[in-house]
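Hi C.,

You asked whether I'd gotten around to modeling the 380-residue construct. I have! Everything is below, sequence then structure, no commentary in between.
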Amino acid sequence: MRHPVPKPPTWLPVDGYLLALVGTVALAALLPARGPAATVAGGASTGAVALLFFLYGARLSTREAIAGLRHWRLHLTVLACTFAVFPVLGLAARALVPYVLPPTLYTGLLFLCLVPSTIQSSIAFTSLARGNVAAAICAGSFSSLVGIVVTPLLAGLVLHRDGGGFSAGSLVPIVCQLLLPFLAGQFLRRWIGPFLTRRKKALGYVDRGSILLVVYSAFSAGMVQGIWHQVSPLRLLCLLGVEAALLAMMLTGTSYGARRLGFGRADRIAITFAGSKKSLAAGLPMASVLFGAQAGLAVLPLMLFHQMQLMVCAVLARRWGAEAEPEPRREGDPTAAAEGGSYLPGPLTRSNDSPSTNGALTEASSSRTPDSSASVNARR
């Protein structure tokens, strides 16, 4: 008799790509690139990073990004959370060194706080929670675009001061490997954009394969230099605890702050997910350029935080989506149709649950009409 294969809980997202990343780290631990192989892997990693940012530039629609500026308050809020609040919390964590975190892991934690927000997962969770999907798309795109310039600059300012081994002289490889390929992609977009759009699925494999190559090169260099012997299992548990506290503070801060700023429910959901997340796809290539051979430990906090944010945000998105589900329609209830769909994402510049929306006024008037007519007839 065959027994069914047990499945993971529905609230636990099984990220196949993260499993591939873990497998790449294990491969680098067992078979690290040495000697000439390390030179080849390093050169291939450099080329992969340049190709990755070239594709980013070629696929980013400048027209859509400019159109999204209409909701500028929301985008400024997300950017402030990503590139101001996060770095401040990262600097505050300096008090944990060396009692809770060693300097190597703290450098990676601080770099995590400088990375731009995600795009795909922010959109997916915002949609699942019945939030403003259009705002999440634009907010994630703006964050990624701004992060190409702001993240290296913040890293040069913050990591150099905290002994991260990064200096202003490192801006040259950053410009050559990140900014110039991105600008070249933007320049050539009008000619190669349709070609890339038709091959979106194949280019997705190129993106992920490039990042896996970067991870293998970085972790191989760490194994050869023996940097992994500097971290104990207890330190890793402490790192997980610190990152859990960081994620909890950002989720609470973005949700409460968006409410205090007067955003509607749909916009608050987009701000919460886009403002509290960090991009693994953008952070790994940047770390390989910023840290070189020391990138192995530098990206470890980002990899752990990435999976943690997926698990926690999946639970929140499902719960908020369930709360937004319309009540089942009751036969003979004239307000059921008006109530249904009241939490669907609305226009980019207006929140669905705003008390001034026409939908709310229409629903209120329609719900009063039957009762009012009944009262008039009774008085007659």
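If it helps when you're writing up: Residues 327-380 have pLDDT under 50 and may be disordered.

Thanks,
B.
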